[in-house]
Amino acid sequence: MPLYSSQPLKIYNSLSGEKEDFKPIHDGNVGMYVCGPTVYSNVHLGNVRTFMSFDVIFRYFLHLDYKVRYVRNITDVGHIVDDVDEGEDKIAKKARLEQLEPMEVVQRYTVDFHNILKAFNFLPPSIEPTATGHIIEQIEIIKKIIDKGIGYVANGSVYFDVVKYNETNNYGILSGRNIDDMLANTRDLDGQSDKRNPQDFALWKKAEPEHIMRWPSPWSDGFPGWHLECTAMSTKYLGNHFDIHGGGMDLKFPHHECEIAQNEACTGQAPVNYWMHANMLTLNGKKMAKSTGNNILPGEILSGDNNILSKPFSASVTRFFMLQAHYRSILDFSDDAIVAAEKGYKRLMEAVDALPNITAGNTSSIDFAAWKQLCYDAMNDDFNTPILIAQLFEAVRYINLLKDGKETISPADLADFTKSVNAFVFDVLGLSDEKSADGDNDKLEGVVNMLIGMRNQARADKNFALSDQIRDQLIALGIQLKDGKEGTSFSIQ
Length: 493
Prior knowledge:
The chain is α/β, with parallel strands linked by helices. It has 3 domains: 3-278, 3-Layer(aba) Sandwich (Rossmann fold); 282-435, Orthogonal Bundle (Isoleucyl-tRNA Synthetase, Domain 1), CATH 1.10.730; 438-492, no CATH class. The protein has 16 helices and 15 strands. It has a 4-stranded parallel beta sheet with strand order 4-3-9-10, with helices on both faces. 38% of the residues are buried.
């Protein structure tokens, strides 16, 4: 019997604003689509948190014995700067500024995205489609929307008529916005726009002569609208009606609202049963932004090459820190918070490592089955990882009591308890036991500090050739030295 049959799951549905019983469209199968990155820059920490939330959700579905098709796209064209319809494509702008081909930009930052997610122990999605790989599908959807009278052509571009759509549907059903209010609070079109209404959005944009990324279409040489891409890719691989669509809270409007409108205009039905949105990540109590310097990249956490944290932190410690908050809650990242998370992570891993040394007795003095169900209850309540972690620390307490001989456990309970602890820690939360890596890091730190001491002595002796040689050879090995008032520190690149 599959595990999901005995573990009913509730999911908070952004569409209804309530937790609902999860009932898949096809018994035992889950179709899940998550909006992936626009690959024009290094993936930022807020992105990592969002994708981590859905990685845990994916992992838990697999743990419950569901067969899951998880689709997470790569947006490599069509995402206009500032998320509007007029202006420059983010990737094309980056290519122009760096004098690169757009696909060079796409390749560079797609590789960075994959490397970061691999470092943080993400499971790969079932399918990872790209927007540029689905131009034909997008053109076909546009044709259908035009045929339904909800899309219109203007000077080679195609727009979705939100007012026309809203005559028979509800534009704003996901975000709770009212179209009359939206129209009233939007400035009138100045006559230079091709749109009939301010809320209309682009399905296809005619490319200006200087625009590098362009494809032929029945309307013009151009490129697809950002919202259309996800409609094309989600329906191709999951069908016109699927279980879950996820993404960051910032995508609820207009991106996901427009997706619903496009799907319903084409198929006459709602595309998704459960809409899920992960909340934002702040840094030291403020919004993360490159412009203010209140920003840190995932790789900078791992290397320690930043001015925010007191030292480097491992991927598993960072992952553990993020999962201590519910995915729908705002999470604030700070040095104090991740230092505390590191202590908790090490305590948890010490207990997991001690499990094989526990000796079973004749009977159990603790109700381990009840503890196990509490772990499931946490995850079944809209994937509540902080409550699960609290239960895992209750398991840490049990392990210490068993080690000290203050409680007993039967052989059958010990086998099930060990299996359950490992399943929740490693399979569901996706943590890694980094004790061996910590030992290697301690040795590396000792060797590098010894070389730093030799370099300092060489500088004191005015043997600058030797001090430069030590520095250059460390750089060649990917170890960057940083001289400061308090001495020399290092980071691993």
